[in-house]
Amino acid sequence: MTRLRPLSLRRFGLGLLLASLLSLLADPAAASNAAVGLAGASEDNLAVPQWLYLATGGATVGASALLASFVTDRRFIERVHLWQTGSEAGISDSVLRALRVTGGVLGLALLALVVYLGYTGPQVPTVSFAVIVVFAGLRAGYTMFSYLVADTWRALNPWRTVVSAVPNGFVSYPERLGRWPAVAGILALVWVETATDVTTRPSVLATALVAYSVVTLAGAVAVGADTWFDKVDPVSAFLHFYGRVAPVRLDDDGLSFRLPGMRLVTDDDLTDLGDVAVAVVLVWELTFSGFVTTEQGAAAIRSLAGVGLPPLLVYGLLYLGGFAVFLGLYVLAARVTARRIDTFETPLDLAVKFAPSLLAIAAGYHLAHYVGFFVSLSPMLVGALSSPLSSPANPVVLTLPAWFGGLNVAFVLVGHLLAVWVAHSQAYRTFPSRLQAVRSQFPFVAVMILYTVLSLWLISLPTASPPFL
Amino acid sequence: MKRRDAIKTLGIGAIAATAGCLGGFERQSAWRDPPLVEDRPAAVYLPAITEGMKMYGKTTAGPYGVALTYSYPHRFWTAAGSELGKTVVEADDSIHLMASLWDAETGTVLPLDAGVSIEILRDGDLVSEEVAYPMLSQQMGMHYGSNYVLDGEGDYEARVHIGGTSLSRTGSFVGRFDAAETATFEFAFETDDLYDVELRRLGDDAGSRGAVSAMEMMGVPTGKAPAVDDLPGRHLGRRTSADALFDALVVDDGSRFGVDGSYLYVSARTPYNEFVLPMMGVRATLERGGTAVLDGARLDRTLDPDLSYHYGVGVDGVESGDSLTLSVDVPPQVARHDGYETAFMEFESMRFDV
Amino acid sequence: MTTDTDATRDRHTCTACGEAYPTERLLVLHRGARHPDDLDAGEVEAYREAYYEEEDELKSFRIRALGVLVLLYFGFLMLFIVFAS
C-alpha cells in the first residue's frame, strides 16, 4: 500500500506537538510552585493564578489529543506500539528458575521480617521496619518499580510461593465473578490504610498482615494459585495492572523491552467490566486519598459530619460514591462514543478496549503523589533494609528542593499524554475508518481532561490531616 | 497511604528545603521539628507529644549528686535575653542526654547558672562534647541536657563536667560548689533501650493549659521548689505573672543570710508542677508612705539549703502598710521543652500590699 | 468483537475474519487495511476510492483541528501575559 500522507504535514504536526507541549509544560511547573507555596529563591517569580494553571493542564491534554489525531498513518502507529527489542537467544530455563527461587525467598524473608519486627520492634512508626518497608517500600517504591521498570511480583509474591508448594485448587472459581473480588479487595485495603492505625502502629500493621495472609492462603489453596492471584488477590491485581505499563518484561519467552505503555495497546487481557473497574479503582484511590489530605477536603468532611452524620460514614460514602462516579463517568464516555460512531461495538466493548489507557493515567498519578514521599524517605528505607534488626536512633529523611512540586505536575501530564497515545493506537486497531477512530476519542478525552484538572487541583492544595481519623 | 499525611502522622515536620530553588537534597532528621500544637496559649500548656526517660546511672562527685538520664533526641527552646530560639534535632543526633544535679547532703536540686558540659568518649577517643544547657521540662523538671551525636551502638563513657558556680550561697552552702567536679558514667547505647522509652501522643488534650505530671525517678530530685508553708519568714503573698508563680516572703532577722536587717526574698516556680524557675532578673521596689525604701533593687540569685534557689535582697525592714512591686526584666535564661516555651517570657509587674 | 446482534441495521460481514460492519464502506476499509492480500481487483479499486474519500474528510478535520490548536496556543499565551506577570 503506497503511502498517501504528505510527509511534510506529518513532520509539521509532530513539530507543533513538541513546541506546544514545551510551552504549555513550562508554565504549569512554575504555576505549581507558586500555588503550592514552595517559593524558591529564583528571580522569576511567576505568579500564575490557580484557574489558569488548571486550565493549562486541561488544555495540554486536549491539545495533545488533537495533535495525536494528526497521526493517521496506521503503519506508523503500529510501528510505535509494536517496537520492541529483546534478547535474541531467550533466557535459559535454569536462569529463570533461579530468578524465581531468589524472588520467592526474598519475598518470604521480607514478609517474615515485617511481621516479626512489627510485633517486637520499636513501636515508633518512623523507625519501624514494618511500617517503612510496607509503605515507603512496597506501596510507593516497589509499585513505582513495577510500572517504570518491570513487574516482578509473580516471583516475589510470598503467598504464591507458599501456595505453589502445596496442593491447591479444589474448588472451581465462578467465572462470572471475573476480577470484581479484586476490586472489592483493593477498595478494602485502601480503606484499612486510611481509616485504621496500620500506618502508625507497627503491631496493628503486623496483625493486619497476618489476617491478610490467612485469608490469602486459605483462598488460594481452595481456588488454585493461578486463579486466586490472577482474579481475586487485591495486591497481585494492583501490581500486575500497574506492571502492564512497564517497558521490560521477563517471562518464559525471554526478556523484552517495549516503549513504556505500549504493552497496554497490544496485550488484550482486559476482557470485562471487572477489569475496567480495577483500572478505575487504581485511579480513584489516589484521587480519594489525595482529596482527604488537603485542607479543602478536610473542611468538606467536617461540614458533612457537622450535619450529623458519623464521620466514618461520611468517609465511606465519599469513598464508594466517588468510585461509582468515576466508573460511571468512564462508562458514560464509552456509551456516548458508541452512539456517535457507526459501529456494532457495544459500550461495554469500548469501555474494555480503552481501559488500558487508564492504567497509564494511574501510573502518572501514582508517580506524582508518591515520588516525593519515596525520595525523602529513602534514607530510612535503606537504613531499615540494611540493618533490619537494629533501628537507627534518629531516622533521617532527605529534604526536597523547591522544583519537586513542578515534577509532580509533569508526571500527571505525562501519564495523560501516554494515555492519549495508547487510546489513539487502540482506536486505530478497533475501527476500520480512521476518521471514526479519531472521533471516537472525543468523549474519552473529555473525561481525561476532567481527571487532569481534578488531579492537578488536588496536588496544588495545602495539606492537612484528615479529620476524625 | 496518604503520603503527605503520612509525613505528618509519622511525626515528621515540613520537608521543604530551605536552600531555595537551587538547593538540593539534604539529610535531615525525621524528628527535626515536629508539628507544634496550633494556637499555643502564652502559658504552660500540654504539648502534642511527651517523652519519658530512662537512667544510665547515678553517682556523686564532690558535693554533687549526679544522675545521667536519656531520651529520644528532641527539639528544645533556648532563651537569649528576651528572644526565644529553637534548637532542632540534627540529622546526626542520636540521643538526648540529661544530667540532674543536686546537693548530696540536702537533696536540693541545683540550677547552678554555671557551665555543665558532657563529654562522650568511646575507647578513650572523643566522640562528642557539648554544653548541657540548663533546661526545664514538665516531666523532668530542672536538669542539664542537650542532643548528642553518638557513633552507633556500643559502650561509651560520659564525663559530666560541672563548673564551680558564682551564685550567691547562704547558710551551709557558703563555700560549697566552688570547685569544678567531674562525674563519670559508663553506659551501653542500644537503640532497643531507647525505643523502650515511653512516647505518648496527647491528642485532644494537647494545647490546653496544664502540665504533664513530673516523673518520679529513683531518687533523682526533679527540682521542685519547697512548699510555701515550709519556707521561713512571713509570707507576703503569691502572684502570677507570665503564668509563673511568685511567692514573696520576708525573714525579719536576715543575719543568717549575711545581711543587716531583714531579708526579702522571692521563690519563683512553675504552675502545676512547682519547679524552681531559675536565672531570672528580678527587681523589687518597696514603698512606704510615698518613699521608696527599695527602688528597683536587684534581687540576687541565691542558693540556700532551706530556701532552695531564690531571689533575695537585704532590706531594713518590711512593715505592714508597705507596698512591694516586683518586676522581671530578664526572663528565665533556661532552655525549655515543649509546653514551657510560650510561658515565662513577658512578665507584668506584681504588686504585694503588706 | 462485534456483539451488538440486536441491531436492525444491515450487517456487512468480512469473509476473512467474520467482523461485521454497519455499512459497505466500513467493510471495504476494514478489508483493505487488514486483509490486503485477500482483495480482488474490484475490491482494490473500491478500497482506493474509499481511502481517498476518507483522506479528504481527514484533511478538512485536520484544518479545523489545527485552527483549534492555534487558537488554544495563542489564547493561552495571551492569558499568561495578562494574568501571570
Automatic annotation (TrEMBL), chain A:
UniProtKB keywords: Membrane, Transmembrane, Transmembrane helix
Species assigned in the record: Haloferax prahovense (strain DSM 18310 / JCM 13924 / TL6)
Name assigned to this protein: Uncharacterized protein
Transmembrane intervals: 50-71, 101-121, 127-150, 204-225, 312-333, 354-382, 402-423, 444-464
UniProtKB/TrEMBL annotation, chain B:
Pfam family, one: DUF7350
Domain DUF7350: 229-352
Alphabetical list of InterPro entries matching this protein: DUF7350, Tp34-type_sf
Name of this protein: DUF7350 domain-containing protein
TrEMBL record, chain C:
All residue ranges annotated as the C2H2-type domain in the record: 14-35
InterPro entries per UniProt: Znf_C2H2_type
Keywords, sorted A to Z: Membrane, Transmembrane, Transmembrane helix
Superkingdom: Archaea
Regions crossing the membrane: 65-84
Name of the protein in question: DNA binding protein
Origin species: Haloferax prahovense (strain DSM 18310 / JCM 13924 / TL6)
Organism ancestry: Archaea, Methanobacteriati, Methanobacteriota, Stenosarchaea group, Halobacteria
